[in-house]
Design a protein that fits this description.
By secondary structure, this protein is mostly helical. The chain is 33% helix and 0% strand. The chain is globular.
């Protein structure tokens, strides 16, 4: 692959330039799509995650032309509890009932 475009899939980007994961992380896309990335185009993937696709493509191409020397090790994104209303549920007591 010589250039990343909006029609390039996340999986193709990660395959061609593994250090591109750092660019995805910078845009808040850490761990998206698993280790190999989803088979969705950047044109679809970026807007769904409120990321400027033009900026993402520019930065990914820059990374591909001049890869980071720092080795990237994929790690799953931490699983966080999903907020319910204005509170985060207690995973030890999901019903919220008072425990004696």
């Amino acid at each position: 692959m010589t250039e990343i475009t909006k029609t390039t899939t996340v999986a193709e980007v990660v395959d061609a330039c593994p250090t591109a994961r750092g660019v995805f992380d910078k845009h808040g896309l850490k761990g998206c799509g698993g280790e190999h990335g989803p088979k969705e185009s950047l044109a679809f993937f970026a807007p769904v995650h409120q990321v400027d696709v033009e900026a993402l493509v520019r930065e990914l191409n820059a990374e591909m032309r001049n890869p980071s020397r720092k080795e990237y090790v994929y790690r799953e994104a931490a699983r966080m509890p999903v907020p319910v209303g204005d509170r985060i549920p207690d995973l030890q007591n999901p019903s919220g009932k008072q425990v004696q």
